[in-house]
Design brief:
By secondary structure, this protein is an alpha+beta fold. The protein is built from eleven helices and eleven strands. The protein has three domains: 161 residues, PAS domain (Beta-Lactamase, 2-Layer Sandwich); 101 residues, Helix Hairpins (Orthogonal Bundle), CATH 1.10.287; 147 residues, 2-Layer Sandwich (Heat Shock Protein 90). The strands form three sheets. A five-stranded mixed beta sheet has the order 6-8-9-11-10, with helices on one face. A four-stranded antiparallel beta sheet has the order 2-1-4-3. It has a two-stranded antiparallel sheet with strand order 5-7.
Amino acid sequence: MVVILAVVAAVPLANYIATSTSRTLFLSRSNDADWFATMAESPLQSGDIANLRELAVRYHELYNTPVFVVDVDRKVVATSRSGVDVKEPDLATALDSTLAGRLPAEPPALFPWRTGEMVVARPVVNNGRVLGAAVLRVPTEKARDQVQNGLLLLLGGLLISIGAIVIGIVRPITRWVLRPLNDLDNATHQITRGALDTRVSTDGRAPELRRLGDSFNSMALSLHQARQREREFVADASHQLRTPLTSARIHIEGLSRLSPTARFALSDIDRLGRIVQRLSRLAGSDRPGADAESNEEPLDLAQAVKERLVGWKAVYAADDMELIIGEMVPGGVGPELEVDDILDVLLDNASKYGAPPVEVSVTRDGTEVVMSVRDHGLGLGSRDLKKVGERFWRSAHHREMPGTGLGLAIVRSEAARVGGRVVARPPIGGGLVIEVRVPLIDDYDV
């Protein structure tokens, strides 16, 4: 019964091998026949067939495939070899369809016991009128050898399959060998999802698999302990930072009434406080419910920029530089956007590499809120503009000045966290404009 089922399954496979090989050969030579039909269009109209005959001879020599072209009356006008008889049954059948404007049917499958050439014909057409046909007589020896080899491989596979099924040991052995590997694969997926307490069983396994399971469990334990130590460190650090930050804020609040610079420092203290809060959230990010959505309200970018500019105006004034506060259009953005960090980098760069006056503005452009900082320095060339924001990149004009080439890379990373982008462009009148474009929160109430 098993043998009968195997033979029944092998018959369509054998037919598929022969049909597929035949179709591949037919399609490849059909493309060549189409090319010859295209090349024959002009000679059949003009009568100048010398070049067409040379092409046919060259193709025959290169691919060992005879080619000939006939006109609408079946007269051979160009051929790669003499002695073409258009009345041969295979040729006559193919020409009947081709000269009638139809593509001949695909030839039968190339089984090893069949001989003869494959006829591939294509009509030569001009403005819908058939002028003749291009015909290839394709040798099939190599294709039939391929089919024969494929059938032999199929027969060998069939015999092997029958032997394995009859013996009846493949399935039990495979399941026994692969079960621990499947368990290991499932455990690996669990580890990648964050379940670092996942372990695999090593009981009743082969010695090699038992050693592999022990190594995996040791690795998972090390990862779990490292993650636990990381969470504990972050939690302890954030807890230890809260007290000195609170004390510093109390002292600076008393000074902020007297000095804008002190208010600037107070803003930095608040920013450090937010960083400590983020560290606290990071410490619990692996716990259940840690991925819940934030309840923070959207941030008014214009208001945040104006508050930060209070301190920067004092800094610029101390350096006798003019800082202009331009248009400030309210617009809600993601609360996680670090406006102070971004503005600090852009204003610091403008003061070091640009020239006054420096203008800061917040506008809307469609679905984006745009924070732009413009200076009136030398600006950047078109090649340099494309590199703005790359890590450690610095313009050739600024390499002698202090810096790391990371500032704008940090700005680009901060903008990307809220789905934004950074654009550098040369404004009218010279200088450089850096725009930080972030998505506008539509339902923000300004």
